[in-house]
Please model this.
Amino acid sequence: MADTNHSSLPDPVRTGLAAGWKVIDLSTPGDATTLECDVAIVGSGAGGGVAAETLARAGLSVAIVEEGPLRSSSDFRMREAEAYPDLYQESAARKTADKAINILQGRCVGGGTTVNWTSSFRTPERTLLHWVRQHGLAAYTPESMAPWFEKMEARLSIAPWRVPPNENNAALAKGAQARGISSGTIRRNVEGCANLGYCGMGCPVNAKRAPLTVSIPEALARGATLLTRARAERLVLAGDRVAALEVRGMDASGTAPGTRRLTVRARAFVAAAGAIGTPGLLLRSGTPDPYGVVGKRTFLHPVVVSAAQVMLIHGDGTAYAVEQDARRAIDAFALAPLHTPVVSAHVMGGAPMGPDARRAVVDPSGRHHRVGNLFVADGSLFPTSIGANPQLSIYAIAARIADGIATDLLPAGAAAR
Amino acid sequence: MRRRTFLAVGAASAAALAAAGWWSWLRKPGAVAARVLDDDASAIVAAIVPAMLAGAVPETGPARATAIREVVAGVDRAISGLPPHARTEIGELFALLALAPARRAFAGVASPWSEASVDEVAAFLDRWRDSGWALKRSAYDALHQLIIAAWYGNPRSWPSIGYDGPPRL
Model:
């Protein structure tokens, strides 16, 4: 199995571990049963990673709770049979309740950003304007968000992808042009990309500029603690505050809860477990939800699967060489649950932000409307689907929310020290 | 809110499943077992593989037997990577299919799995794939995804699709 040996390439995560980063794998035995910090963050993906870096840079002590394992470039061997069970929720086979839609979500340090394909779009202007007009998010105009996009684009080296398209993509661009469909070059958060095409299994050459390679290492270098294979089971409420977070280690397989338990006490708690994990944590914890908003209005970006040479992937599909035949066959397909394979990454919503406590779970600063020291900083904040790959939207909004949390905690924190 | 149970096939079959003692099929939570499929479930997967992967696995000889055995092992590994609720649901499916009356009534497969012909199994798979009952379609999907993943995750399948494997770095 030494066919993809790349142990000689630099691995900044393993270097950091050797240098003494505080990382505790809760699937292994250990003595620690409590942890105290300024801010506890649930999730290490686009939202949690950026929040961790922002808060650690502000001088606050941070603990990050991640259900998945810490894997890095040395582990990324570009094999589906290894990567999907190791890096994705439910081995990349998570499904909607009716099992008609397959949901792809990362479950590892870095979350989805460790296994995404690095498309980096700003939240579309029409989406932000819709939020301003229909969801009361007056502070989310394109102009007021621009500095946060710029900040994260600079931090994560987001730039247009300059490499000429391969034959497949060139054919798509040519076809789009012939049909009068506009197309463009995507922007990506990469540096030194080797164009391998294995982004979905973790980047073996550390080209992705993302939480795993940028934000989490920065937070850990500044003294943050990272708990891995650690499931955030429940927020313990005391009045209108969160007093503690109960954490449970996973078993050795990483798929089921294990035996080790740990309690995290903090001044503030940030839920950034993704648009299924965050609403789930809030519901499990019994956070006040008098209008039944939590876990509702969850959005996907569903896609149907087709492949080159007009081979249509469908229960009734066969290979078609002629477009007209293929088009007739598509028209004849039944678009029905569990007949048309549908896949989605990009889970959004479920803990929306907004000024109206009857419609939104958190206020526009990310703070829970009814639990004063609880914040949300991930894609579950979105009051609607955003209509673009969400990572840059999450990075920018999480950076803004975390900046607010730091401002909120620091004067009191400075006085306490 | 509880996730919908995969095989909510009514009280009668639930009782039949309980009588079959299918709970023993699942590994104990927390234990790291090398195998999650018992002999009955392995035989079912072994019967389905040649139909699901017709034209993909070798047609004859020891290579065919090896490929089928490896796909069964791959399905076993894939299931062991699923969370407990999903393992339970798949366990229910195999427990149901292992019962001869249920195999005949639900799957329409007259022969025991180890004796069923590829055509007989393929016809069963087609019926479930195209069934008007979403439950059967979802069961077909589960079998399809597990078996396809186990086969195309196996380097043995790669030459047939012109894939050289991951690049050397």
